[in-house]
Amino acid sequence: MDIAMDAKALNAFLSQEFEQVAGQYQVERADAAGVTIRLNVSYDHLRPGGTVSGPAMFALADVAIYCAILSRIGPVALAVTTNASIDFMRKPEAGQDLLAECRILKLGRVLAVAEAMIHSAGVDEPVARCSMTYSIPPKR
C-alpha cells in the first residue's frame, strides 16, 4: 500500500499542528509496513524510581498510531482516538529513549485500528503493547 506522508512530512506536520509536544517525538520511519516513533525521554517523563511513567508511554503509543494512520490517509488533524487498551509488560531501561513500532491492522473509511509495541532503545523485549481505534472524520 502506498503512503500519503513519509517521516519528513509527518515530523513537519507534528511541528506545525502540535508544537507543544513536537520536540518530544521524532518519526524515524514511515513506510507501507508502519511507523517507528522515538520518545526523547527527559526528566518530565519520569516517575519516582527513575522509570518512564505510564502516561508518557501511553502518549507515545497514541502519537505513533496517529502518525501511522496519517501516513496512509494524509494530514487529517481531526482524526481522534475512540478506544484504547495498553498492557505494561516490564520496566523501561533507565536513561534510554523509547521507540514505538506501529502497524495498521484495519483502515476503513470511518475507523482505523492499529497496534504499537514499545521498546527501550536497543532492547528487544517490549515494555508495553497498545491497541487503539481511531475515528476518521468525513472528507469535505
TrEMBL record:
Gene3D superfamilies for the chain: Hotdog Thioesterase
Gene Ontology MF: a single term: acyl-CoA hydrolase activity
InterPro entries (alphabetical): HotDog_dom_sf, PAAI_dom, Thioestr_dom
Protein keywords: Hydrolase
Domain Thioesterase: 49-122
Highest taxon listed in the record's lineage: Bacteria
UniProt protein name: PaaI family thioesterase
Organism: Paracoccus caeni
